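Pasting as-is:
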Amino acid sequence: MGDESVEELINKRDSYQEKANLFKKKRDQLHEKSKQMAIERDDINAKVRNIRNKIGEHKKRRDEYNERVKHAKNQRNELITENINLKKKIKDLEKERFSTSGLNINRLKQNLRKLETEQMTQPMSSQKEKKLLVNIKELSQRIKEQEESLNKDPRLRKAVDQEKLVKQKAEKQHDIVEKMAKKAQEEHQEMIDLLKQLDNFTKRTTEIQESIVMTKIEADKVHREFIDFVNNIHDLEKEISGLEKKKVVKRKIEDATETQKQADLIFERFKKGEKLSTDDLMVLQKAGLL
C-alpha cells in the first residue's frame, strides 16, 4: 500500500465506503427482518397464552360435567335397582293373588295373544272365526276383571305407583346423564380443537425462533464485514492524511529552495549595482537576506 498514490488510495477508500454502505444496509435490513419476526412471534405467544387459558377452562368444565355424570349415573343405577326390586315385589304380590284366585293373568294374556295371532294368520270358516272371536272377547273380559281386581289390592296398587314413580325418576336421571355427558364431550372436543391450534402455533413459533437465530447470525456476519471495511477505511484515511502532509512539507521545502535560488541571483545582481524592483526586494526579504 506504501507505493500507491494519494489518488489511488482515495479511489480505494471510496470503493470500500460503497461496500461498507452495502453491508450496513444489508445488516439493517436483517435487523428489521429479525424485529418483524420477533413481533410475529410475540403476537403468536400471546395467542398461545390465551388458548392455554381457554384449554384450562374447557378442561375444568369437562371434568365438572364428568363428575356430574358420575353422580347422576350412581343415582340412576340406584333407582334402576329400586325399580327392579319393585317389579319383583309386584310379581310376588301378583303370584300371591293368583294363588288365591287360582288364575294366572300372565298365562291368560299369553292365551289371548295366541288366539289373536291365529285369528289374523290362519284361514278358517266364518263359523269357526265367529267362535274364535267370542273366545277372544271372553278372555279379554277375564283379563280385564283380573286386572281390576289386582288394582283394588292396596299393597299392589302402592307397589305399582311406586314402580312408576321410580321408573320416571330413573328416566329423568338417565336424561341428566346423557345431557351432562353430551356437555362434557362438547367441552372435550373444544379442548381438542384448541390443542390442535396450540400445536400449530407452537410449531410456527419454533420456526420463527429458528429463523430469528439464523437471521441474527447472518446479521452479525454482515456487521463484521461492515466493521472490517470501516477499519480499512480508517487506515486508508490515516495513510492518505500522512501522504498529504508529506506532500505539503515537500512542497514547502521545494518552494523554499526555489526562493533561495532566486534570492541568491537577485543578491548577486544587487552586488553588481543593479537596481532592484519591489518584487526583487520581496524575494530577498522572504529568503531572509534583508
